[in-house]
Amino acid sequence: MPAPAADATPRARGEWARHWRYAGLPGLDLLRARYVRHSFPRHAHDGYVVCAVTSGIEEVGLQKGTVRAGHGGIIMINPEVAHTARAGAPEGWAYATLYPSSEVVTEIAEETTALRGTAGFTETVAENPQLARMITEVHRAAESGNALAADSLLRITVARLLRHYGGPLPSRTPRSAGARTAARARAVLEERMAAPPSLEALAQELGTSPFALLRAFKAAYGMPPHTWLTDARVRRARGLLEAGTSPVDTALAVGFSDQPHLNRHFTRIVGVPPGAYRRERSA
To answer: What is the DSSP code (8-state) at residue 136?
Structure first.
C-alpha cells in the first residue's frame, strides 16, 4: 500500500490516519491508518464497517467475545453493533477500512444477491487475502482520483463479501418489554442530547428502576446509556462538522462542555481529530 497522503493526520509514536470521503464514491467513508497505542472505545456505526488488515494485528471486542485479524484478514461489522478495537500485537496494526452506508449495501445486495430483508454479514472475521487486496485497491483508486475504478471495485468487493459472508440480518423491532424501554430511553437521550437527564430521572420518567434500565439498555445496544450517549454525540458532531460547523460550536451543540472534550472523545471514537475530519470534507 502506498504511503499516506500528504494531508493525512500526523500522530505520535509512528501512528497516522486519514479519514476522508471521495466525491466519486457517494455514501462511503474511507479510513486508512496505522495505530500502535490508540484504542477505540465501545461504539457503533450507522452503516457497515469492512476493513482489511495490511500489517500487525487488530483486536476487536464484541459482546460475544474478541476476534483478531492479521495481514490478509478482513473484519466485517454490521450497523449498530457495539465494538471496541485495539492493537493485538506490540507493533500495532495498519488497515484500510471502508464505511459503506446502509443504502449502498442494500443497493448492491438487491442487485447481486437473493438475500431477503436487510442484508448484512454473518461472520465478523475472515482470512481472505484476495478480498483484502480488493479493499485496499478501492482506496488506491480513490486516492488517485479514478472514480470509475473506485466505484467498480467497491461494488464488486461488497458483492463478493456478501456472497461469501452475507445473510439477512434479524429485525431490529423491539419485542420484549425491556427492549421497548431501552428504545424509549434512546429516543429521550437523542432528543435531549445537549442536556440529558440523570439515570435515576430517566428511569423514573420511563417507569422503571435505574438498574433495570441499565440492564435493558446494554442488552439492546451493547453499552450502557452514558457510553451510548458519548458515541451518539460524536455521530451528531460528524454531521455538523461535515456541514461546515466549527469544532467549538459543534462541541456545544452536541452537549460537550467545551472543544477539548469534543477533541478527546471524537479522536478516540473516529480515529482522527475533529479539525482534520472537517478539513477532509471541505477540501
So the answer is: H
- Rounded Cα distance between 262 and 259, Å, is 5
Inter-residue long-range contacts of 243-249, CB under 8 Å, 24+ positions, other chains counted: 244/278, 244/282, 247/274, 247/275, 247/278
Whether residue 1 has pLDDT greater than 50: no
How many Å apart are CA 193 and CA 254, to the nearest integer?
A: 6
Determine which helix (DSSP H) or strand (DSSP E) holds 264, and give its type and residue range: helix 259-270
| CATH of range 177-282; options 3.90.1640.30, 2.60.40.10, 1.10.10.60, 1.20.1050.10 | 1.10.10.60
pTM exceeds cut of 0.85: yes
**Residue 9 clears pLDDT 80, i.e. is over it:** no
> Which residues does residue 43 pair with via DSSP β-bridges, in sequence order?
83
Residue 167, φ and ψ in degrees, nearest 5: -175, 170
Provide the 8-state DSSP code for 21. Answer: -
So where are the chain's domains? Answer: 9-168, 177-282
